[in-house]
Amino acid sequence: MLSRSPGTARRAVLALTAAALACTALTATAEAAEDPLARYHRQHLTWKSCVLGPDDTTGKELAQAGARCADVTVPLDYSHPGGRTITVAVSRIRATDTARRVGPLLLNGGGPGGTSLGDPPWVREAMKDMAARYDVVGVDPRFIGRSTPLDCRWPTGSAWRGAGEDRAGFDRMAAFSKGLADRCRRHAGDALPHATTRNTARDMDVVRAALGERRISYLGYSYGSYLGQVYASMFRGRTDRVVLDGVIDPERYSARLWRGTEPANRHALKGWASWAAARDTAYGLGRTRGEVLATVERVRAAAARTPLRLGEHRLDEHVMPLVALNGLSQHNDAAYGDFAQGVRDMLRASRGERVTPSPWLAGVLEFVLTGADSRYGSAQTAIICGDNAAPRDPEVYWRDVQRARAGDPLFAPVTDNINPCAFWDRPRERPTRIRDDLPALLVNATGDPRTSYDGAQAVRAMWPSSRLVTLKGADQHAVYGVYGSACADAAVNAYLATGRLPARDADCAAHDTH
């Protein structure tokens, strides 16, 4: 700027500019003292097309729905906001009913490790008429999706495995877990301390400020329910309407997230087995629920003896239970059919047949047994291990597996098993103390195998001013806009429309699907 000053007035301009710079510096110093994140809160967002290339399906869906995308700059380390920065990718479909606009609705679809950038189109469909009154904003949390990545270069997309049948199998999994932790330390060590829910919540508040909003509404599924609890606790007064679907009990959120889900998963497995038994002519897994469950047990035992050959993959005692867990989260014919076909493929392989796995099973095997989704598993594990310290002694996990195995030989060796958090560096911060109360709308199915119903009940008791919408009789993870309950969807939309919670908790029947 100084170099452009005309020669005759140079000295005067220099004097004025110096004064201006001094004033600016003083102002900036005052702002920094008042708000060390001022430059992030006041950043200008450049909105652009969400389409990254001809094969970008997510970008095309966003574009067709009228979304635009931007990158929000945030500090890597909030204790040193002047240091290295990273970006958080956001998408936005703006409100069209500007006269009755409520504000932004930020989305998190769970994980941790899941992307949410592509969620606004389907969430707006679920919102029906309410969508016009909101800016629906998808956010890829730090290190996930289109945000600055974290990749430990793993040979898998999941850190979780079954412990196996004996101590030798457990020791293999302890070594596997340590290897994954070592890879993260080697390839992403500078980012690991900053991959936490608390920092994701801080990023959310930067997004809020960069959007020019005083408050945000929020819709979080599964892990996103915990993120919502953390945000509302760290940034009181900055939430408007909060919907948490698939609710995590914060007292049970730990580095051993799967623990305690065995009963819900067994219940879901039995429900699926009854469905498959009624379709024995299609899948050949058994004509009664008991026969189908016996088939699953035969497959598990066979994989423990000799890894099953499924196309290019080998399915062993450590991975087979993970496949079963992956088959149980959605309560509908399509998902049940995919799982039944997968079990049939595993059954055929256990008989020595050459099997090309069905598309669903092939996808699960690629996820678990290749590095195709290394970034997902890396970020997921980094957040879980970064939030809570885990027991360091492998004997703790071995004893837990041995105690639980007799009652549940399929799921307990996964849910109680050791994972990389046992070999992780200690978290830098303590877990967030969740606030005493929040007027939020909670949604959960009674048979949810991922975020079990008692978690929603615990948060409902913790937050007296909240309300709980229960989908009864469904083994379903994620309800609003996913399961197809007209009753549950209407309850959420009524709350989004008015900001008023129901007078009392509400129950919806599982058969209310259309």
From TrEMBL:
InterPro entries: AB_hydrolase_fold, Pept_S33_TAP-like_C, Serine_prot/Carboxylest_S33, TAT_signal. One of its GO terms (molecular function) is hydrolase activity. SUPFAM superfamilies: alpha/beta-Hydrolases. Residues 416-508 form the Peptidase S33 tripeptidyl aminopeptidase-like C-terminal domain. Transmembrane segments: none annotated. PROSITE patterns: PROKAR_LIPOPROTEIN (PS51257), TAT (PS51318). It holds the Pfam family Abhydrolase_4. Keywords: Hydrolase, Signal. The keyword Hydrolase applies. Residues 1-32 form the signal peptide. It comes from the Bacteria. The keyword Transferase does not apply. Belongs to the peptidase S33 family. This is Pimeloyl-ACP methyl ester carboxylesterase.
